[in-house]
Amino acid sequence: MSIQKLEDLKVWQEARILMKMVYKIITKFPKSEEYNLKRHMRECARNVMGNIAEGFGRYHFQESIQFYRIARGSLVELKSDSYASFDADYLSNGDLNNLVEQEDKVVKMLNSLIDSTIKLKRKD
Prior knowledge:
By secondary structure, the chain is an all-alpha fold. It has one domain: de novo design (two linked rop proteins) (Up-down Bundle), CATH 1.20.1440. It is built from 4 helices and no strands. Helix 1 runs antiparallel to helix 2, helix 2 packs antiparallel against helix 3 and helix 3 runs antiparallel to helix 4. The longest helix has 31 residues. The model has no long low-confidence stretch (mean pLDDT 95).
């Protein structure tokens, strides 16, 4: 199946699921984290989706690769925040496991997308 539009891109779909998970989970955080951990996790989750979209929308392979790598960096940052949230007792063990599982899924898909884009660039 050919990918014609952003919504067809599986990694973007999974990043969207992750973003929804983050938005739901952070509602349980205390008010004191509104401008700290909650805000940062929201931004990281949005940045993952946004940078995948930005990379998909670029015409040059190298630009796409750069945005996919930025998305991966935001994703790893989000994963770190997930553990920080758990350590602060804001997340249950189940919530942490669900987040980490989805984060790991997206990072694997992103790594594959980066690798395949690099291969396309070499063929060009």
